[in-house]
Amino acid sequence: MRDVFIAGAGQIPVTKNQDESLRQMGARALTAALTSAGGERVEALFVGNMLSGMLSHQQHLGALVADAAGLRGIEAATAEAACGSGAAAMRWGYMAIASGQYDAVAVCGMEKMTHTDRYETTRALATASDWPQEGAHGHSFVSLNAVIMQEYLRRHLANRSLFAAFAINAHQNALTNPNALFQKPLDIALYEQSPIVQAPIRLFDASPICDGAAALVLMSAEALAARAAPHPRVRIAASASATDSVGIHDRHDLLQLQGAILSSRKAFAQAGLGPGDIDLFELHDAFTIMAVLSLEGAGFAEPGKGLWLAADGEIGLDGKIPISTFGGLKARGHPVGGTGVYQLVEAWLQVSGQAGANQVPNARVAMTQNVGGTGATVLTHILSREE
Amino acid sequence: MRDVFIAGAGQIPVTKNQDESLRQMGARALTAALTSAGGERVEALFVGNMLSGMLSHQQHLGALVADAAGLRGIEAATAEAACGSGAAAMRWGYMAIASGQYDAVAVCGMEKMTHTDRYETTRALATASDWPQEGAHGHSFVSLNAVIMQEYLRRHLANRSLFAAFAINAHQNALTNPNALFQKPLDIALYEQSPIVQAPIRLFDASPICDGAAALVLMSAEALAARAAPHPRVRIAASASATDSVGIHDRHDLLQLQGAILSSRKAFAQAGLGPGDIDLFELHDAFTIMAVLSLEGAGFAEPGKGLWLAADGEIGLDGKIPISTFGGLKARGHPVGGTGVYQLVEAWLQVSGQAGANQVPNARVAMTQNVGGTGATVLTHILSREE
Q1: At the fourth CATH level, which superfamily is domain A128-206+236-385?
Q2: Measured between alpha carbons, how far is B117 from B111 in angstroms, rounded to an integer?
């Protein structure tokens, strides 16, 4: 397999009530990424998106976004793996370069979710569930995560307030991220006062519905060398994905995300690294319980111990394993098909030393984990700075 | 790039009013392909699908189908490029093997379109168009193709009845395909009597709305050699894709499918072949006009001459360039996300000498062309028998 490098990245601010169309949002992020990469033309575009057919009457985003960005003619297509669609598009782009088919491709994750009524959006999100077993019976992603969080509290005799530290950390880091949806601090009092959306999930345990787009340019070593390189050399040291049952009723253990365990294991094996080598971890904190299970599944904590990492102050920018360093899904926002690419853009900013006020000191190796559904698809990437 | 081979294939009959769910349909086609490949386990699954979110409240088909087929845990995701989704999934699977990431993967294209009302299905199909410019103004894929067909008739002073030969050929070949939706002969009288759906398109110019699933197993040379090989060795000599503007208002020339021209050119270059080397061509006859433009775009006829290939008897099983050899989209059926994979399964049956009554004599090299929208995404593959 050929090595694959990140040559540049771009993002638009996560917002609500975005005026632009999906193709405009995507083209803006993509153009920023192309500029960041030195203005090189790419040979293919892989879009990550989940909801545009249902919420915007628009499939076929690959060709649309390529054209809107001035790239008419190149290969383009869309990858979908529910909320893991962004990192799924990254998997495709990675293989396109690793295979030798192309030397420069772009990956662009995007979602527009706030222009329809809330019921329609919630219902569309539930198509990530096992519909006949879950969505059709009224389950939403809030209610499914509530079942999982409840079981965590029960089995581990945990106090619900311990989850607050994940949301507080995310909001803290978002304060200095101009692309974050929320730039307001959160404390334990505010968390405790927030309404219970579905017990035991409070409003501040959940990520927001929002709009956004982010993009990356990937290159082979040859293409990277030929370009006037404005950024440090960042290699994709691992790219991995694994699945589990989509319905939570059919899981071996509700608290063990097999997809996270398997894809992390594959990623560490590919990179020749372990959890101790990771300087920061952009995980999928769509709900605080998912942050906990991702930390445990990836091996940063034993089962039942992930919750305490936050309470022990280990997840901050100067902690043992910094997470949600630009605000995470919770505070930067979770435009679902865009999220996996936002995570990768942020991880790239960190390991290339461009994270500004959000910089994790001496970050050289970053891991990302993007989750589809309640853990049915988990995609793990490791980025490594090489100079 | 590593060579990629087709190790086995499976399909379920194209039908209307399918009782099974999408995951069951996909799992059945996938299981058939795995059995055909010698029962080997695959490491990843790439699903092609366009409409399941809108028509079945179900996204996230990758993980669902993998689980339903007994493959829980493997990597899985969905590729979408409108009606080109099936071949887009094939592109992903191809890169997964070519890159060296995996040695055995599956590709499964599927669609279920007949369980909802016709208006809803037509509207969902229109999400393949440039929605704000086309679908939102009432355009359907029938009306968009009618515009293109009208221009062809006008510019080339052609008689509309010449299009009948494409539909008649498709129905003739479907008579001996047990997986085809339509197994009834068509003649010029019946064609002329058929209602005009939207002028100049008659009912028999258009492919049907239907349900279906088809699958392929792809392997590296190493994996193929390790397996007890029940089939001739068939290599993917080319895999290519290109795009054009999604909206037809924005095309350079309404009758020149730039996506077909570019992706065919890339495919021929990759394979080191030209149109004269192709023994059969599974093209995208969603409408008879698309068959004509695909023949012209791929280089089998000069612009304005594709229409006459059928009239001259050149597209039959023993013609110069056999097309729709198992009935094509017109008569085998067009379950949109499944179509690209059905085409590849049929091309594989042909070059491996397993096409039975539909066999093109001495077929060794086959080309497929799968089209998204009215030509905005075109994916071209060439299969070559190597022994």
Answers
A1: Thiolase/Chalcone synthase (3.40.47.10)
A2: 15
Q: Which residue reads 């090595």 in tokens?
A: A3
Q: Do the domains A128-206+236-385 and A5-117+209-226 match in fold?
A: yes
- Is the Cβ pair B57, A242 closer than 8 Å? no
Q: Using one digit for the tens of pLDDT, what is the confidence trace for B35-89?
A: 999 988 999 999 999 999 999 999 999 999 999 999 999 999 999 999 999 999 9
Distance CA A249, CA A158 (A): 23
* Residue extents of the structural domains in chain A: 5-117+209-226, 128-206+236-385
- Whether B334 sits among the annotated catalytic residues: the reply is yes
Residues of B in contact with A376 (CB under 8 A): 60, 63-64
Q: Which amino acid is at B370?
A: N
Query: Is the pTM here over 0.90, yes or no?
Result: yes
Cα atoms in the Cβ-side hemisphere of radius 13 Å centred on A249: 9
Segment (H or E) for A97 = helix A85-98
Q: Phi and psi at residue B179, in whole multiples of 5°?
A: -90, 0
CA angle B301, B307, B308 (to 5 degrees): 80
Q: Which of A83, A108, A210, A381 is catalytic?
A: A83
CATH class of B129-208+237-385: alpha beta
CATH of region B5-117+209-226, choose from 3.10.50.40, 3.40.47.10, 3.50.30.30, 3.40.50.300: 3.40.47.10
Enclosing H/E stretch for B214: strand B212-219
- To which H or E segment does residue B87 belong? helix B85-98
ipTM of predicted assembly, 2 dp: 0.98
What are A278-326's pLDDT values in tens digits?
999 999 999 999 999 999 999 999 999 999 999 999 999 999 999 999 9
Which residues face B239 on adjacent strands? B381
